[in-house]
Design a protein that fits this description.
The complex is a heterodimer of chains A (184) and B (138).
Chain A (H helix, E strand, L loop, with lengths): L1 H18 L3 H21 L3 H25 L13 H19 L16 H11 L5 H9 L1 H22 L7 H9 L1
Helix pairs in contact in A: 1-2, 2-3, 6-7
Chain B lengths: L4 H24 L7 H19 L1 H7 L2 H24 L14 H32 L4
The chains are: A mainly alpha (184), B mainly alpha (138).
């Protein structure tokens, strides 16, 4: 019941984000969308994912987008409306395919679902002896799947290096321009 | 925004608790939800809050560019270093069981260090990205 209400809110926010032209409001709605998503994850018992979604989706990315708005502009440039039939058909077909794809997915919490077989029973049964941590998520993340987490860390590292390479060279700008910009 | 008294006082009061909570999430990730990634993000949000209110140049005094850039690499190196240490001590890359006398102790130590590496890199990356964006003049 709660989850349906949350999903309904998320759908409403999604439509609102598509229609509103003020980008500041869009960024704020994006933060609310992420927070609702985090609540949904918590209801689905994925506390770690919900935590990450709340911290990264609702927190950091909102702030970063606001920083981008401060550098650019907070009003969307409206392009002349063109309601082409092709785009509507593409959206509807893609949506229908996605819904069709979920039809034969196992029900949430189904013990026979593939995700609850394979390696998961082994993690749950033996990680207490092998790794000895109460939180199985941490055992999987840092130990069993240590390679993946190392890769993710390198992704974060690369993102920061990329930003530094593109934006982190402000010292080379001519001095006159910077003074002017600060006064203005 | 440093002329807004309420914002200034409340944020100064909150920032230590944000750091404390980040450290709690960092070290408590073995027992409850959380871990290096979330802790790094929360830790950086303390700096970002400070930068939003007191400005980028004051924040750069607390987190100078050389420090955040070095921390960016230190975290990744710490993570990889734990992996290499496993190899040196006779296991595979990133196998923590060989790090201590008992396998579970090795796992504990390895996970702790690896999560610390993740936390350092994530915090440094978020601070770097935000300060680079915010410190850019139009």
């Amino acid at each position: 019941m709660i989850i349906i209400a949350l999903m309904g809110f998320m759908a409403v926010i999604g439509i609102a984000m598509a229609r509103i032209r003020n980008l500041f409001a869009v960024v704020m709605l994006g933060g609310i969308f992420s927070l609702l998503g985090a609540a949904v994850y918590v209801i689905l018992d994925a506390v770690d994912v919900g935590f990450t979604e709340a911290a990264v989706g609702a927190g950091i990315s909102t702030v970063l987008l606001l920083g981008t708005l401060a550098l650019t502009t907070s009003e969307e440039k409206v392009t002349p409306e063109s309601r082409s039939l092709l785009s509507i058909v593409a959206v509807i077909v893609t949506g229908a395919v996605l819904v069709y794809g979920t039809l034969d997915m196992p029900r949430y919490g189904d013990p026979m679902a593939p995700i609850n077989h394979h390696v998961v029973p082994r993690y749950i049964e033996t990680s207490g002896d092998e790794v000895g941590l109460p939180n199985v998520v941490t055992s999987v993340l840092a130990s069993y799947r240590g390679y993946d987490t190392l890769g993710e860390t390198f992704v974060i590292f690369t993102a920061a290096v990329g930003v530094l390479a593109i934006l982190g060279r402000s010292r080379r700008q001519p001095k006159r321009k910077r003074v002017k910009a600060r006064k203005g | 925004m440093s002329h807004l008294v309420i914002l200034r006082i409340v944020s100064k009061f909150l920032i230590p608790f944000i750091f404390l909570f980040a450290l709690y999430v960092q070290w408590h990730g073995d027992f409850g939800p959380g871990g290096g990634f979330q802790a790094g993000v929360i830790f950086s949000s303390g700096f970002i809050l400070y930068a939003l209110i007191f400005g980028v140049s004051l924040t750069r005094q607390a987190a100078p560019a050389w420090l955040t850039r070095a921390a960016l690499a230190i975290g990744v190196l710490l993570y990889s270093g734990v992996g290499v240490a496993g190899m040196v001590m006779g296991g595979n890359f990133l196998s923590y069981s060989v790090l201590a006398d008992e396998p579970t102790h090795g796992q504990h130590l390895g996970i702790l260090l690896v999560e610390l590496g993740v936390g350092i890199t994530v915090a440094a990356a978020m601070i770097t990205i935000f300060l680079t964006f915010a410190g850019k003049d139009r």
